[in-house]
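Changelog excerpt

This revision adds worked examples to the README so contributors can see how folded entries look when concatenated. The first example is reproduced verbatim below.
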Amino acid sequence: MAGYVIAEVDVHDAALFEEYRKMVPATIAQYGGRYLVRGGATDSKEGGWTPRRLVMLEFPSADQARRWYHSPEYAPALALRLKAATTRMVIVEGI
């Protein structure tokens, strides 16, 4: 069953985040993942949730998504993102 990474990202250092954006796609692909949502306009309907930036990734499984997140390939990009943005993220199993 597929695994999904869903992240709400609030960028506070655009230049540093741009470096992150250049680094991360190759690491996602290396672990069999792909972008489903990468930014774009949101239309809040309930609960007052208005994310500034929303990202959704699909991996072959939730375990594979975890492998990517904890991988040595993603580690340098993760370090940049932690400096450039505040993120709320979950990994969820799909159906």
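The second example, added in the same revision:
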Amino acid sequence: MEKGTENELMIKLSIFEQQIRQIEQQLEIIERSIIEMNSLGIGLDEFKGAEGKEILAQIAKNIFVKTKLMSEELIVDIGGGNFVKKNIEDTKKLIGEQTNKLEKIRKELNSALEQINDELTKTITKAQNKT
């Protein structure tokens, strides 16, 4: 294999590696978000019938305050700094919709990863056939 062709191959392989790493990082973030959303949906069930009970409310990472649950009505950030009142079931539906969007993104990222792996395999096969 010629030196120029070899350098070109190394550059292509490096680019593929960077793309794969970026997609894997994005997939990791998506996976964590899906797990977090699922846990949140399950956790909301604990608020049903809990009006008047004491709970721990997080005010910062690892900092909680004891508070009394005044209502089962939740204030939900729907984006853009807009907050709306929602009941537990409506909030769970919203979480489900967000989870579905994350699942769709995960599927798209996995598809992109497969395409990159296919291109990587083709590039390696082509380089091996030239030697």
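Reviewer comment on example two: Residues 88-130 form the longest helix (43 residues). The helical segments are 3-44, 88-130.
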